[in-house]
Prior knowledge:
This protein is of the alpha+beta class. It has helices at 31-39, 77-83, 110-134, 169-182, 184-187, 255-273, 285-293, 312-330, 334-352, 362-377, 384-393, 402-408, 418-424, 434-443, 478-487, 491-498; strands at residues 13-18, 20-22, 51-52, 61-62, 66-67, 84-86, 92-96, 99-103, 142-144, 157-164, 191-192, 204-205, 213-218, 225-229, 241-246, 302-303, 309-310, 448-451, 455-458, 466-469.
Amino acid sequence: MIDSGDEPIVGIAGTEVEYGLSWADRPPEDQGELARELIAEVSDIYHPPVLWDYENEDPRHDARGFLVEGDRENPDEGENRLLNKPLYNGGRLYVDGAHPEYSGPECVTVRDIVRFEKAGDRIVAQCRDGLSRRKAGSPPLLVLKNNSDGKGNSWGYHENYLLPRTLPFDVLARGIASHLITRIVYCGAGKLGSDLDPSEKDVYQLSQRAEFFEVPLGLSTMVRRSVVNTRDEPHSDRSRFRRFHVIAGDSNLSEVSTYLKVGTTVLLLRALEAGALKAPVLSDWVKSFHRVSRDVAFRTPLETEDGRTMTALDIQESLFEQVSRYMESHGMDGESADLLGRWDGVLRALRSDPGTLSRTVDWAIKQSVLETYRDRKGWGPGDSRLKMLDFQYHDIRPDKGVFSMLDSTGRVDRLVDPMEIEESLTHPPAETRAFFRGEMLRRFQGQVHSVSWSSIVVDTGDLTLKRIPLWDPTKGTQKRVGSLIGRAGNVRDLVNELSPAPPEPERSSER
C-alpha cells in the first residue's frame, strides 16, 4: 500500500515465521542443532555465502524508555555462517533459539507480504526435503508451520510495521491492543485442546498463541509474553522511525488469513497515526485475549475501561467502521479498498454463518476438517487421532499436510498466483530498500562481506571495508537505484556513485 507521496511510512511491513520441528530420531534437546542442519540445506539458488552483520542490532531497547540488561548477540564468523543465510529475495533464513526462522523482506503491499511469506514456506520445505534425503532410512522429519507442540511450548510468528517516531508509544499501545486481541476471529490458526491444561482435550480455540500470553506490555518474546510488545529496535533511523513488533499473531497457512491479519492492522495503524481512531480499550488485555480464543460462538462479553461490555465482533465492527470512514474521506488505493471489502465480508459471515468461512480462514478450515473426520470415523471427544490431525494440518509437505492437500485440490481460497510465489523465491520486492539488499547480493557476489536490515558492508579492494547505510526503508528501491546498480561495473564504482561529491573549494574573488 503506497501513500499518495513518494515515501510511504505507515504501510511498509514484513513478517517472520518460526517453524516447529519434530524428528523421532532426535531428542528435544537437539532442536537447535537440527535447526542448523535444516537451514544448511538451503540451495545456492537462494542464498549467497555472506555473513549477517550484527553491528546495528540491539533488541534490549524498551519503547517505554529504558534499556534492559543482557548481552548483545555477536557470534564469531564460523558460527555466523551456521546461523544465518541472507537471501537474494531480500529476506533472511536463520536459526532463532531452537527454531528455523524465515524473515521476509520489507514490503509496501500486503499482497507482497503474502507472496514472500509463501516463498519462505517453500524454501524451508525444500530444506526439509534435502535434509531428509541425507538421512534416508530415518523416520520422517516433520516441519510444521504452527505455534505450539501440545506440551506447553510455543514458538513465534512476528509482524513488523514501520511507523513514524512521532506516534507516541502509549497512544500506539492503547489504540492497537483491542485489535490484536480480537482479530483472531478471522486470522487465528485454530487449535484443538489446551497446551496449559491437558484435561481440556476437546476444547477448540481460535488461536494457537493466545493462552501463552501473560502480561499486557513487555519486552520478552519467549517468557511472560505480552499482548503489546515493547521492543524498540527500528532497524532504521531511530530519530524518524519506529518498528512496531507484533508477537500476538498466529502462523497462518491460509493466504486470506495472512492478508487480513496484516492488512487490517496496516489500515488501523494509518487511522491511528492520523488521530482518526478511538479504539475501545479493554480493562484486562490478557484475560480478554484468553477468552476471545475460546469464544467460537463470538458471544463472550469483554469489559472495557469505560464500563461497557463488547464482544470480539462488536469491537471488530467498531474498528472497521472507524477505519472505513477515515479511508473513504482520505482516498484509498485498490488494495485498501479490497481489504476493506474482505474485512467487512468476513465480519458479516462471522455474525450470520461462520461455517461459510470453511474455505477462507484457518481456524474455520481446520475446524471443518476435524469435525468431518470425527463424524466419519466415529472418534469420541479427546481422541488423540484428532490432535494428530490438528498437527498434520500444519505439515509443510505438499503430499502430507492437510492444508497443502486442500490447497492443491482447490478446496481453499487463494490470493496470489503460484508464479508470483515462484518469482518471490529469488527476486526482492521493488518498492523498499529490500531491492537494494537483494540486488547487491546477486550482482556483487564476492564483494559483499555482510548484510543486515539497515546496512551492507562491501569490500572495494581498499584496506578497510565500506559500510553502505540503509537507514531509510523507503529508499533503495528499484526506481531509485535500479539503473545505478545496473551500470556499476564493480562495487567500488557503485560506492563512488553513491558517495556525495566533495564540495568545491571556495575561491577568492578577483578584482
